[in-house]
Amino acid sequence: MLREMAALLDAQNGQPYRAAAFRHAADTIAGLGIGVRQLFDRDGLAGLDALPGIGPSIAAAIAEILATGQWGRLQRLRGEADAEALFRTIP
Fold it and tell me: pTM of the prediction?
């Protein structure tokens, strides 16, 4: 979902540093030695926020995803996406 957010921001000519932040956070999660769910269950929001490249807002987004299986911000952005522009971002 973090990578999808980055792609949608790119497709909508959003702020490039935000897209890069979501990609970096996704890379951090992918490189964890334990599952993100296990980390969250053990250390809570503070554990997510302590990860490199993950600040309070991205940590809250990850917590929302873990708690609900969805991310409201991503769903809103999906609704605003220009399908043609998004398609052009696919390699």
Answer: 0.77
